[in-house]
Amino acid sequence: MRLEGIHHVTCITGDAAGNVEFYTGVLGLRLVKKTVNQDDPTVYHLFYADEEGSPGADITFFEYPGARRGRAGAGMVHTVTFRVASEEALDFWESRLADAHIPTQREGGRLRFADPEGLGLELAVVESADAPLVARHPDIPAELALQGFDSVRAFSAAPDASRELLEGTLGFKPADAGTAAWEVRGAVRGGRYAFDPPPASGAGVPGAGTVHHVAWASNMDEQAAWLDAVRAAGAHASGIIDRFWFRSIYFREPSGVLFEIATLGPGFSIDEDSEHLGESLILPPAFEHLRDRIEPVLTPLPDPRAAWARS
Ligand code: ZN
Q1: Which CATH class is domain 6-310?
Q2: How far does the centroid of ligand 1 lie from the alpha carbon of residue 134, in Å?
Q3: Over the stretch 219-274, which tens digit does the pLDDT of each residue have?
Q4: Is 39 helix (H, G, I), strand (E, B) or coil?
Q5: Domain boundaries in the chain?
């Protein structure tokens, strides 16, 4: 039983329209599902990914309109890293982000920046045999596009406290002796997780521009066994929750970071034609009866690809 790397990373935005513009218009990801937070259906849950909406490329946002900006601290993920193929890709992104007035820092095969609400992002040239997970965009050549997640980095003052759960239960492998960095790799994909010492600026503050949780990918038939394993390790885990496009369990790893284990399927095309993912508001069947109340309170959002045919 092995986890197939990162499934998705869920973050918070206070500005859904600006969020769609940045993640689709600038970063070139595809909006693959426009739905609501199943724990609070008055707010959006927006999913961006590659063309197919694959686990491994899926960054998602809960929208809390006007939410104040947060700040990552101990027990929170502070940086989400996407793979790119080459230094030429970093050249391209350095220039494209500058055109979008996003400051960047380039160092050793990495390009660091923040989204418009301060979420830490990074592009890294990573040698990997994992299939690239790429979205189409008219201004971004496919060979330069984002290829899915490489890793997430979190803050922890006591990374060794997490070692037993990560290595003993979840099958994370230490990247190098003496470092607080791990790889978790299944039959198809891998992903990485690392800790950095927390900033001196104090405790984290959840809010816009922060990561809510990171989900690791489980094979469909192993979810129940993961729940048993996590509980046996002493973590307080939710039960298995049916999120319609996947099934989820949630628990905090010892540093405080909220983990999810999400199944690889059934996936986003279960209720939408894959040609039209993300174009309209989709509610899971259990929420469809709320549509008349939900739609009027959500911020109207454009279909990011509507202009493509005209341009
Ligand atoms: Zn999630």
Answers
A1: alpha beta
A2: 21
A3: 999 999 999 999 999 999 999 999 999 999 999 999 999 999 999 999 998 889 99
A4: coil
A5: 6-310
